[in-house]
Amino acid sequence: MRESILLYGAPMSLYTGKVRAYLRKHCIPFDERMFGDPSFATEVYPQTQRLMIPVVVLQDGKVIQDSLDIINHFEQCGQGKFSVYPESPIVLLSALILDLFGSEGLLKPAMHYRWNYFEENQALLRAEFGDSAAPAANEETGQDIATQAMALMRSYLPPLGINDESTAAIEAQYLELLALLQKHLRDHPYMLGGLPSVADYGLYGPLGAHLSRDIHPGTLMKQKAPRLFRWTERMSAENADIAEYVDYPQHYFSAEQIPQSLKDILALVARDYLPEIEATVDGTNNWLKAHSDIQQGAGVSKKTSQQTLGKMDFSFRGVQCHGMIKPYRLILLQRITDAYDALDEDNRKLCTAFFAPLGLDSLLRLKAQRRIERADNLEVWGAASELSPSAAQASQEQQP
Asked: What pLDDT does residue 23 have?
């Protein structure tokens, strides 16, 4: 038995940042190793069959890969100091929506500002990619490996919809988001009040690892949204770190306390990310029509390294973007629809009334025809999706 858990990751890794922040904030002891450490190949890869981080190795040797699964493990075993899932239905759904947006929807600005401003960022990136992929290697070897790793990461830009046509829209969205977050964090230390929730960890991934640490976007954040930069520091602290918010209560908002500043952020999610999620669901459904013989429990992709089902088009701020269908996003979406489905009729009506003016009510019921689950650190096809209670009722009412 190990004395503490092991976290395999990297300082510039978006998803490692989520897990590292959670472990620190909840005072869960861990040792961190780079993904290029030789033990990753001998102890981790044989179990995950993926060259992906973050990975946690528990004291008993169990391996967990994926930031969501890692956080949920510690939530379920009671090691967290408090739950990162608020109890109020409206607040919980807000948290889950922001987690989806941060974990997946902000990949475009995170990757754009890292790789399309490479000249400004490259000193830090070369050092960190070399150290992470080949820790303790000599300088020449580290730089050779860093060059290969960075070329691979840059190849992900087109599948995310990042190209010459979309970059202006990506930057416009990000500058608007900076202003909204700066305004919200003027009065509140975290997204949903006095405690960090899954909303904070989802947003912290890109805003911490890429957009506050990389040289060009880090300078931009400090200039345009210094309170947001301070929040990135707060997210990595082991205590609450909210001294500037005098006597701020350390609990989540109630539904009645949700401020306009948070509603404005949610409205941006509806405008800028809902079309991409709808396209992901449509693309998945079209893929399923062509593969109707898929069995429950089968791997979503034939290769463990493959994370997409094909190409899709989606609209982003008036720009037609070309991207890839990423099934993993449906796992995050299912958390939203599952939470909504679990509510009684009165609470579903309250949630619909709250999210409809923000343009997000359809997200509460948006489902692919098949669920996607996680098994043995891989995505697998689940059962057919069930209609949300409200959708099922509407369907019954339309029958003759």
From this structure: 97
pLDDT at 387: 77
Residue closest to 171 by CA, chosen among 122, 120, 117:
117
The per-residue b/e assignment along 14-46, b for 16 or more CB within 10 angstroms, e otherwise, is bbbbbbbbbbebbebeeebbbbbbeebeebbbe
Among residues 261, 108, 260, 103, the alpha carbon closest in space to that of 182 is found at: 261
Rounded Cα distance, 255 and 193, in Å: 11
pLDDT digits (tens, 9 = 90+) for 259-303: 999 999 999 999 999 999 999 999 999 999 999 899 999 999 877
Domains of the chain: 5-76 (3.40.30.10), 89-258 (1.20.1050.10), 272-398 (no CATH)
The average confidence (pLDDT) of the chain is: 94
Please calculate the CA angle 199-201-206 and round it to the nearest 5 degrees: 105
| φ, ψ at 171 (rounded to 5°) | -70, -35
Question: Which residue stretches of 6-138 are H helix?
Answer: 14-25, 38-39, 45-48, 67-76, 89-100, 107-115, 118-133
- Residue showing tokens 């109020």: 88
